[in-house]
Design a protein that fits this description.
mainly beta; 1 helix; 6-stranded antiparallel β-sheet; 3-stranded antiparallel β-sheet; Jelly Rolls
Length: 151
Amino acid sequence: MIVDRIENLGLYYPVLKGLEEASEFVKKFYKEPSEDGRYDIDGDHIYASVATYETKSREGAQFESHKKYVDLQAVIDGTEIISWAPVEGLKVESESFSQGGDIAFYSGDTVMDARLPAGYFALLFPDDAHMPCIMDKESSKVTKIVVKIEL
C-alpha cells in the first residue's frame, strides 16, 4: 500500500502502467467535482467510481482484496480510515476469483490504519487487504474516487 497526497501522484507513475491516466482523472475531479457514478477512463481497463457515503464503524467490517485491478482510492471530501493487512495473514471468508470475479473478503487482525483526509490517496495492490470507509472518531460524510487500474 502506498499512501500520499494527491498532488504527489506523479511520483508513482513508474510503479504502475495506467496510473498517469488515473491520476489525471483524479486531479481534474478534485478541482472540478462532478456527480457520483462510474466514469470510463479507458473502458474496463481503467475506470473510476465516485461515491458519497457515511463512514462506518469497524464492527462487522471485513477486509477485501482484488487480483485483476489495483485500487487508487482518493478522498475528495471528508476523512476516513483504511485498515490494512497483508492477504497472507488473513482468513478467506468468501471470494469470487474462482467464478471470474475480482473480490475476496477476509477476517483477521489489522496491521495498520491509514487516515485519509481530503487530498490524500491510497494505492492498493493485490496483496494489500484493505478495509475502507471506516470512521475516524465519529461517522462523517466522505466523497471518494476509486479508480480501478487493470493489471
